[in-house]
TrEMBL record, chain A:
<protein>
    <submittedName>
        <fullName>Family 1 extracellular solute-binding protein</fullName>
    </submittedName>
</protein>
<keyword id="KW-0732">Signal</keyword>
<dbReference type="InterPro" id="IPR006059">
    <property type="entry name" value="SBP"/>
</dbReference>
<feature type="signal peptide">
    <location>
        <begin position="1"/>
        <end position="20"/>
    </location>
</feature>
<dbReference type="Pfam" id="PF13416">
    <property type="entry name" value="SBP_bac_8"/>
</dbReference>
<keyword id="KW-0574">Periplasm</keyword>
TrEMBL record, chain B:
<keyword id="KW-0812">Transmembrane</keyword>
<keyword id="KW-0813">Transport</keyword>
<dbReference type="GO" id="GO:0005886">
    <property type="term" value="C:plasma membrane"/>
</dbReference>
<dbReference type="GO" id="GO:0055085">
    <property type="term" value="P:transmembrane transport"/>
</dbReference>
<dbReference type="InterPro" id="IPR035906">
    <property type="entry name" value="MetI-like_sf"/>
</dbReference>
<feature type="transmembrane region" description="Helical">
    <location>
        <begin position="62"/>
        <end position="86"/>
    </location>
</feature>
<keyword id="KW-1133">Transmembrane helix</keyword>
<dbReference type="Pfam" id="PF00528">
    <property type="entry name" value="BPD_transp_1"/>
</dbReference>
<dbReference type="InterPro" id="IPR000515">
    <property type="entry name" value="MetI-like"/>
</dbReference>
Length: 334, 286
């Protein structure tokens, strides 16, 4: 029995032992990871000869388990920024080697000691033109059941966004959002709770709006962009659009840390960022990327709507992530 | 054959029987028992040694509600599945073999289609602007769309559909083993069809119902995708809550405790059923 066990373990160890010149990149799957593969991984392999193996979807529980057990099979992981800040504090991430990754042109909003931006996006208000009478003007309209009856859709998971929307709709000025008044936010959300349909992934948010199942909702700008490209009759308001970001991190103890840094340099380069933004509708985190992009794409990005734009406070969220999440899920389950 | 030889023959037989079990035992030990023990350990050691995770789960109204939801959904799904599956299984049992194998193929085929695809298809059918509601409104049956999704109704419809094969398969086996002459005898003795069903067919098919029901119930307890997509947030089930605890909150201790409670309750239910129905009948013997 012991022998069999030892044999199996030995087998596992030899197969997972690091191969030369190869890294594992993990992201969320779907069209986003496809665009990352095409814009970053494939050109990177051609230039450096380093193979990039794709894995996914990103799973924070798995990431923690890998670091805890010392058997880290992911080298670069695409994560949400508030998670990255929290994970860095918990000692789950390698510091970024800015001698390898040029920092000068990176948007400082999305750069930390342990993470570089992957892309950034805005939460925008989108509606099905056939299902809504009139034009919603801003977040407050999502709470106006008299003027805009029908189902509305919000992001299901505890994350920056919905709490802020409720507070803005309740009259909190944009520069006084933090620290978040959770009681006030949940009270406001209670007023429309029976009319809320939650979306748990991007494809679902598109399906809800395109079909009119939800008349309007809070969506990622890239998903609205894709709907409009497909010809869906969807309107969008950028009023008080809220920026959040995905970042790239290297888990503590990653087997190919040095190669991972080289990959980060390529992914955050102006060219890599421009090409990804064009494919996905999400915004580049390298300020030099716009020079490499066609005019009409630049105009469709959150950067074109900075007036009234709100940067969701990732540091606040990182600090209070668990406490808010506990309350969020308890409230949802009621 | 001497007494000695017979004895050594008997002692030889036992181990060779176990030898055949060895691969399965190793597999279960390595990939089930070891992780379960590790899970149990995590639930009482993280973030610190003690029973605080269990105290948190039992002391909190939200978790209690999620546990209640989980068993409610599993019970409703099992009950509805039995009612829907029984006539199908009976048809299959008495059909001519050729026709039966075609129907059987259709049932099996549904299991081969991707689960997520099937669940999304139900979303399109059930939603307020979906095919079913549009048809009903068009026919003038209802004025307002029926709430068929984001609630218990949606979860039940979606899950019964997925669970049906797991109920039908064991039921067909049991029903085929019933001698049709017993029903004819009941009729000859003056029993109405309903009485024959209640007093002959139903008791004789109980082992199949019990086996299928247990499988459906246990599978439903741990279901994730379908309740998450067709239910509302107030129908949250345990599997989704555990995923949140581990993936989003990174609280392995709490997640492990919840998973272990689910496992313990499932084992207890299985033990109860063994007592009530009997292990032999559950295994398919009549």
């Amino acid at each position: 029995m012991k022998l069999i066990f030892a044999g199996i373990m030995a087998g596992l160890l030899t197969t997972t032992a690091a191969q030369a010149e190869e890294i594992v990149f993990t992201s969320w799957g779907g069209t986003t990871q496809e665009a990352q593969t095409k814009s970053w991984a494939e050109p990177f392999t051609v230039e450096s000869g380093i193979k990039v193996l794709q894995d996914g979807p990103t799973d924070y529980g798995k990431l923690k388990a890998m670091v805890d057990s010392g058997n880290v099979s992911w080298d670069v992981v695409d994560v949400e920024m508030d998670f990255a800040i929290k994970a860095a504090k918990d000692g789950l991430l390698e510091p970024i080697d800015f001698n390898v990754v040029p920092k000068a042109d990176l948007d400082p909003r999305f750069t930390t000691e342990h993470a570089v931006g992957s892309f950034y996006y805005s939460f925008v208000l989108a509606w099905n033109k056939g299902a809504v009478s009139g034009e919603p003007a801003g977040w407050a309209d999502m709470f106006d059941l008299a003027k805009f009856p029908g189902k509305r859709t919000f992001y299901k998971w505890s994350a920056p966004g919905v709490i802020e929307i409720a507070l803005l709709a309740d009259g909190v000025p944009a520069d006084k959002l933090y620290p978040l008044d959770l009681d006030r936010a949940f009270n406001k959300l209670d007023t429309i709770k029976p009319e809320i349909v939650w979306w748990s992934g991007g494809a679902q948010s598109q399906q809800l709006i395109a079909s009119g199942e939800a008349t309007f909702g809070q969506l990622w700008n890239g998903r609205v962009f894709a709907l409009q490209e497909e010809g869906a009759d969807v309107g969008v308001s950028w009023n008080q659009n809220m920026t959040a970001a995905d970042v790239l991190v290297v888990p503590k103890g990653a087997k190919n840390k040095d190669l991972a840094m080289k990959f980060l340099a390529a992914a955050t380069s102006p060219k890599g960022q421009a090409s990804f933004a064009e494919a996905s509708g999400y915004a580049p985190i390298n300020t030099a990327a716009k020079a490499e992009m066609p005019e009409d794409v630049v105009e469709s990005l959150p950067d074109a709507y900075v007036e009234g734009q709100i940067n969701l406070d990732m540091n606040y969220w990182a600090e209070n992530r668990d406490a808010i999440a506990e309350r969020w899920y308890a409230w949802q389950a009621q | 054959m001497s007494v000695d030889a017979r004895q050594s023959f008997a002692t030889l037989r036992m181990p060779s029987g176990f030898g055949g079990l060895l691969p399965a035992l190793v597999l279960i030990t390595l990939f089930f028992l070891v992780p379960v023990v590790a899970l149990l350990l995590r639930s009482v050691t993280e973030p610190e040694p003690g029973l605080q995770n269990y105290a948190a789960l039992f002391g909190d109204g939200t978790y209690a509600r999620v546990f209640f939801n989980t068993f409610l959904v599993a019970s409703v799904v099992t009950a509805v599945t039995v009612v829907v599956a029984f006539p199908v299984a009976w048809m299959l049992a008495i059909m001519p073999p050729v026709l039966g194998s075609i129907v059987f193929g259709v049932i099996i085929l549904s299991m081969w289609t991707n689960l997520l695809t099937r669940t999304y298809a139900w979303m399109v059918l059930l939603q307020r602007t979906g095919v079913i509601n549009r048809t009903l409104i068009g026919l003038g049956v209802v004025d307002e769309p029926l709430p068929l999704i984001n609630n218990l109704t949606g979860v039940t419809i979606g899950m019964v559909y997925i669970m049906l094969p797991f109920m039908i398969l064991p039921l067909v086996g049991t029903l085929r083993a019933i001698d049709p002459m017993t029903l004819r005898a009941a009729a000859l003795c003056g029993a109405s069809p309903i009485a024959a069903f209640r007093r002959i067919l139903l008791p004789l098919s109980l082992p199949g119902i019990a086996a299928g029901g247990l499988m459906v119930f246990v599978m439903s307890l741990g279901y994730f995708v379908t309740p998450a997509l067709l239910g509302g947030t107030s129908n949250m089930m345990l599997a989704e809550m555990i995923a949140q605890m581990i993936q989003s909150l990174l609280n392995w201790g709490l997640g492990s405790a919840a998973a272990f409670i689910l496992l313990a309750v499932t084992m207890a239910l299985y033990a109860l059923q063994l007592r009530l129905v009997g292990a032999k009948r559950l295994a398919g013997g009549v």
